[in-house]
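Async update (no meeting this week)

Hi team, since we skipped the sync, here's where things stand on the single-chain job. The sequence we agreed to prioritize is pasted below, unchanged from the tracker. I ran it this morning and attached the output directly underneath so nobody has to dig for it. Comments welcome in thread, and please keep replies under the output.
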Amino acid sequence: MYFRASTARRARELSVRGSAQNLPDGSVIVLAAGDIAALEELTRWLRQGPPMARVDSVDSEPVDPAEFAWPAGFVQK
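Output:
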């Protein structure tokens, strides 16, 4: 939960919309939409994560924003 909350806080600071959700295997999926520079900064932050987080890998890929119903802000699921 700490990783998702920290991700949401960082995303909001960057004015990025989207969500962070835990998956059954213990990984976290982050869907994000916003300014390219802000998304790149969020991706850099995700590679390190919050203090005491263990980040094994970060995979990122562009998606068609029209494929998702984006929240007004950034939410934890």
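Quick observations from my side:
The chain has a mean pLDDT of 91.
Strands lie at 17-22, 28-33, 74-76.
Reply here if anything looks off.
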